[in-house]
Amino acid sequence: MKKIAFLLLLTAQISFGNAPFWSKTGHRVIGEIAQEELSGKAKRAIFKLLDGQSLASVSNFADEIKADRKYKEFSAWHYVNIPPGKDYKDIEPGKYGDLVVGVQKCLDIIQNEDNPKEDRVFYLKMLVHLIGDLHQPMHVGRVEDKGGNDIQLQWFGRGTNLHRVWDSNMIDDYGMSFTELSSSLPKLDKKEIKDIQQGTLLDWVKESQLIADRLYDSVEVGQKLSYQYSYIWWATVETQLQKGGLRLARMLNGIFK
Ligand SMILES: [Zn+2]
Q1: Which residues constitute the domain of residue 70?
Q2: Is residue 12 part of a domain?
Q3: What is the domain-level CATH number for residue 57?
Q4: Mean pLDDT, range 141-167, rounded to an integer
């Protein structure tokens, strides 16, 4: 009995360890930035729906429910795989959809005030998370290596992979809380904010896909990464967090107007 429990624990840990997600901190930063950019109307509507919880505090909900098999069908929404040189329109979404399908579904449900509150709340929490994932470029990676999960690397002497370097290794090692990190990001003026918020969902997918292309070229399989990698790429991490937050705010301001 003990042995079985141990094995279960081990498997749970292994699958948890491989689970692809932007670090909790990254998602919270995106929620925090979005919260700051909400219109008064959106802020009030969201406050009501979330019973006073902040966007940062619900931003990891979609990863947390992965532990419950009941929500299995949503796991395909955290990413979209597009072959290099192709566009989203060239691919066929899988049976359970993908990031783009997921975001669209969230918008549909949240927008319709006739939907039950609990549904609007569920899909609002999902949306906050998915817009975060969309801005982690390796969530728009290639199918053959599972968005970089199969590209094994070392991070300061520990085993990792390209997906995880971008999900969490760099952000976690930066050592800031989500509030510290969000307030330390470069200050942008109105015009810069507006420029970032422009574009369609598919433009943003393309942007992440093109960054992912560069990230695939940024490492050799088995490479030992350390300070230099963060030194080169940290500005990109910051930009992606900022873009994710500002675009999420734009979407939410558009819904609750
Ligand atoms: Zn995710």
Answers
A1: 21-255
A2: no
A3: 1.10.575.10
A4: 97
113 burial type by CB count under 10 A (0-12 exposed, 13-18 middle, 19+ buried): exposed
pTM for the model stands at: 0.91
Distance CA 114, CA 199 (A): 28
Asked, for residue 27, whether it belongs to a domain, the answer is yes
Determine the distance separating the centroid of ligand 1 and the alpha carbon of 77, expressed in angstroms: 8
Give pLDDT tens digits for 19-48.
Answer: 455 689 999 999 999 999 999 999 999 999
> Could you give the CA distance from residue 185 to residue 188 in angstroms, rounded to a whole number?
9
Give start and end residues of each alpha helix (H) in 97-167. 99-111, 117-134, 162-164
Residue 52 lies in a domain: yes
Q: How far is ligand 1, taken at its centre, from the CA of residue 66, in Å?
A: 9
11 against 68, higher pLDDT: 68
CA of 221 to the centre of ligand 1 (A): 24
Q: How many domains does the chain have?
A: 1
Q: How many CB atoms lie within 10 A of CB 133?
A: 28
Instruction: Let me know if residue 73 belongs to a domain.
Output: yes
